[in-house]
Amino acid sequence: MTDARGSARQEGERPARYAPGTPCWVSLMVHGLQATQEFYRALFGWEFRPGPQQLGPYVRALLDGREVAGMGVLPPDLHLPVAWTPYFASADADRTAEAVRCCGGTIGVGPLDTSDAGRLAIGSDPSGAVFGIWQAAAHTGTAVTEVPGTPAWNELITFEAARTAKFYAMVFGYDEEPVVSAGLDHVTLRLDGRPVAGVYGAGGAVPRDRGPHWTTYFTVADLDEAVELVVHLGGQVLKPPREGDHGRTAAVADPEGARFSLLQQSS
């Protein structure tokens, strides 16, 4: 992880509308929505309310009344993994979807309108990692960050960082900042000078059962307590807590196998 802090915002508030290319939302599609809600309610203190139903049952997770993430049921004919998916802001979802296709990616869903909330598309990059595109209308995206229970950072695990980072740079207009270090294949994607996501080349270490994929980091107040709670709630620890450049992190999975990371930021 390069910089889990993202751009600084006062008191955790997000801007009124995310700039195109900025990660603006995360969504999880599962088989058992009720059980998954209970897991994340206990872990992060989320409450839920119904959201747009175009792709089936869907709820929005709220923290202190403010939206932080989405959660829905996987349609049986939609072949997507049980996984957290980041959405990137777009001023024109149709144009961004076309750019994805032109740059070697695919679009599996949409673009389509989600009532008055906005317009979305779900695609994958040339290596197969799934991501979303969000053109905001009434729903602009995650409403609070930098407090426990909110998304902190998104990082792509793929085979080779530079080639994949180039795809996202062409689609979303990012600047690429490679990490110059022996044995480390990592590129930070920047937008207007600020880090917005990371791309990590893992080569043959990419999980065979998962393939290239995005990982969302969520902020927690106490990493050790959060990891214990994940296990108590039926999840599993994939990588135990360890020190990083910007805090302590751990990789975990929920009871349906959706992978995500926890971050206790440095004070």
TrEMBL record:
Q: What is this protein called?
A: VOC family protein
A single Pfam family it belongs to is Glyoxalase_6
* Residue ranges of every copy of the VOC domain listed in the record: 22-136, 150-265
Read off the InterPro entries from this record: Anthracycline_SecMetBiosynth, Glyas_Bleomycin-R_OHBP_Dase, Glyoxalase_6, VOC_core
